[in-house]
Amino acid sequence: IVGMTIETMRLELHDKDENLISALTDDCATLEELGICDGMQIYVSDSSGEIAPTLNDTMIEKYDITDEQYEQRSESIRAWKKRHGVDKKIVNL
Q: Where are the domains of the chain?
């Protein structure tokens, strides 16, 4: 995470339903040792509270496109996936 120091990072492990499983406090533990499985998420927050105000994206000018407009594009990721028969699931190579 850019903008916060390691000392102020707080890591939490959540299951696929976003329920908190545990705080991740062992800096030397591997993902396997932590028992992380497919679908779980690691949440990173700033315990200092200094970065939160800078994460407000309402001040950022964005480009929006409707789903219908995106569907019309021939050079999009969606179009590429359709051409190559790739579904939404991650393919293990």
A: 6-84
Q: How far is CA 20 from CA 9, 40, 53, in A?
A: 17, 10, 24
- Which residue, 2, 51, 45, is CA-closest to 20? 45
Residue 88 has pLDDT above 80, yes or no: no
Would the pTM of this model clear 0.70, i.e. be above it? Answer: no
Distance CA 32, CA 76 (A): 35
Q: List the CATH code of the domain at 6-84.
A: 3.10.20
Strand 41-46, strand 9-14: pairing: antiparallel
* Residue 62 pLDDT: 81
What DSSP line would sit under 50-86, residue for residue?
A: SSGGGG-GGGS------HHHHHH-SSSHHHHHHHHT-
What local confidence, expressed as pLDDT, does residue 33 receive? 92
